[in-house]
């Protein structure tokens, strides 16, 4: 099951074979719930009330989706169109994304027809879901099998993917789902062996049924699900759980399953603002930024410093600053949290290791933890890309390079001007820091003449200070290597050497070797020398070889001889 403010579901056993492909379905209104046969065509049934995104919504993170390997299949142009995305599936091999124009695309393995394309064919080329044309997605969640639930702004709830029922002794995926309406009512349906549907019995539920009992008259603002357990957060901060409880994941002080919602009385003195579920554990965050955990702890996913299950909520990260966000996912045993200052912690199963206490990372978001350390590397929520009009510091600097509108200084090289900003140069380069702090005449000039280096070389150097990148052919990189040596820019020097190594050919090898010796680039010198020796016959027939001064030529022949280059 995956947490969401509008849709969610769970899972249990592995499957033996995928079911036949069927088109996505619009689920009927829970107030009039006739069963939906798996062969029924896609049709506009009575919609759910518009789903609400409150409390611990899946939507809202601003992340870089290229951190998930699956998105490396897309071009930069395609990536730039993405507004929201979700990676899901048993092996994180399926993805769905929504563009800025509200078009929905899918790609990946398509297990159990979970891509909603009407077939079971895998695709590495994104396919548009035409049945969602003209609709705005407000919430999305996925479960095992896999299967997907998607809610639109007009209140419709779509479902597709795995839909197996227990009809034979064979082992199959058995799933259940939940939905939260705009009015705060919780509905559930599907497999119910442990009471995860919350109906008061263990009979399977073939269509959406309202979860009542202790939830009667209460307004839920968030729902979340584990393997075969369900949780709901009420608008007054109360937490209720039902379903499987073998590891204490309901947090009620025992490990007995619950067929109906049961309040977590251990949290009754606290106001919970967010709750998430992992495979068999739960995390809850109070409105004061305190973190509590309970349930399964085989991999240290509770962060308590040991691997003992907890039947009741226990506080973790007491020695850390205020927590503002928590993260977990039904298909993993990984936990993550973000603090008020932006520090991101992870614990649990992380790339095969069991981390039993919260570990400080260098990530910027909890989503990065799941991209890099969760197994599988799914997304724990529907993530959002940066807005079109938002620029990071790096992007803003890149944009303003050579911009006459904002520059306060110009360099004139070979009769051409390059527009820059004194502050940026002082921050990025010791050479300019000295120039603009001392009594250098350049500090008083609006235009600085450069005669030692060519325009392409000097422009590339200044652009490097804004972008950390270099884009020059190997021959020009020699001149930039000279500049980097003169200005004591060691990182730039290393980048130039990399460019030269990647661009070395028989024709330019000896020229590059000469430059490496002249600019005292020892690593590059060794590389070029070996290349020349390995291609000695061809190199000695080039014009560059015979144009060098006699002293260097003698030194090269001597070194090559000592290396055995002239032995038969």
TrEMBL record:
The organism's superkingdom is given as Eukaryota
What residue spans do the RCC repeats cover? 102-153, 184-236, 237-288, 289-340
Q: Domain BTB: where?
A: 407-474
| Region annotated Disordered, chain positions | 1-47
Q: What name has this protein been given in UniProt? A: RCC1 and BTB domain-containing protein 1 isoform X2
Residue ranges under compositional bias (Pro residues)? 16-38
Keywords attached to this Swiss-Prot or TrEMBL record, sorted alphabetically, are: Repeat
Under the heading InterPro entries, the entry gives: BTB/POZ_dom (IPR000210), RCC1-like_dom (IPR058923), RCC1/BLIP-II (IPR009091), Reg_chr_condens (IPR000408), Signaling_Regulatory_Domain (IPR051625), SKP1/BTB/POZ_sf (IPR011333)
Matching entries from SMART domains are given as: BTB
Q: Where is the composition biased (Basic and acidic residues)?
A: 1-12
